[in-house]
Fold:
Amino acid sequence: MIHVNKLNKYFYVPHEIHALRDVTTHIHEGEVVVVIGPSGSGKSTFLRCLNRLEYPQSGSIVIDGVDILAKGCNINEVRAEVGMVFQSFNLFPHKNVLDNLTMAQITVRKRSRKQAEEKAMELLGKVGIAEKYNVKPEQLSGGQQQRVAIARSLCMDPKVMLFDEPTSALDPEMVGEVLDVMKALAKSGMTMVVVTHEMGFAREVADRVIFMDQGQILEEGTPEHFFAAPENERTKDFLRQIL
Ligand code: ADP
Ligand code: MG
Structure:
């Protein structure tokens, strides 16, 4: 589903950083990949390249047969096919929940308002929050806002879902409800790439764990391999710190 080959990303301001170094990985349809690694290791940059929020200097990314770095590639379509959920929920604050879920369906997917609203209500039901369709995001808890953000991405019928520390900004009592939605999504067969510090989620849900450090993939394997017998010294150090 996702082929990433020798991806390199540099930032030049405020000073030169080689944020991704020859990152190569292949992700199957339906696979759930959890990306872990220290702060600044390039995890967010990697995800952001996968839906063209960042544009790498070299390398290739092919998603479901589409070269998303090609000059003629429609960026809005890429972002519809590759949904992304951020740490900060990024809902439109002046729009109610239903409008948040219908706008891109109407403009990008060219659906009628009625179709878009039906889809929105279906997805709001799936994330357990249908009764809140008419409120503004600020009237919701962080966990509810994040579930709305997930539903909004899913309304586009994406082929892939990216999650960048989706529970890091939440109060602890709300982490579970968001992880539960993500687990259900994984079970439904969605292809997912998830940056998270929730090692319980990684153990339980991931098909594969990728460890990044200093812009490189240093180690990857099943959760069993990762948590029982990591090979790289830096992986071991990192796991010692967080477990
Ligand atoms: P992580 O998500 O693993 O914490 P990031 O991908 O955010 O790491 O960052 C990787 C490196 O790239 C860091 O050194 C960070 O400071 C740098 N970086 C990320 N985004 C930018 C940007 N927009 N401009 C300059 N440097 C950036
Ligand atoms: Mg990050």
The chain has a mean pLDDT of 97. The pocket of magnesium ion (ligand 2) is lined by residues 43-44 (CB under 6 Å).
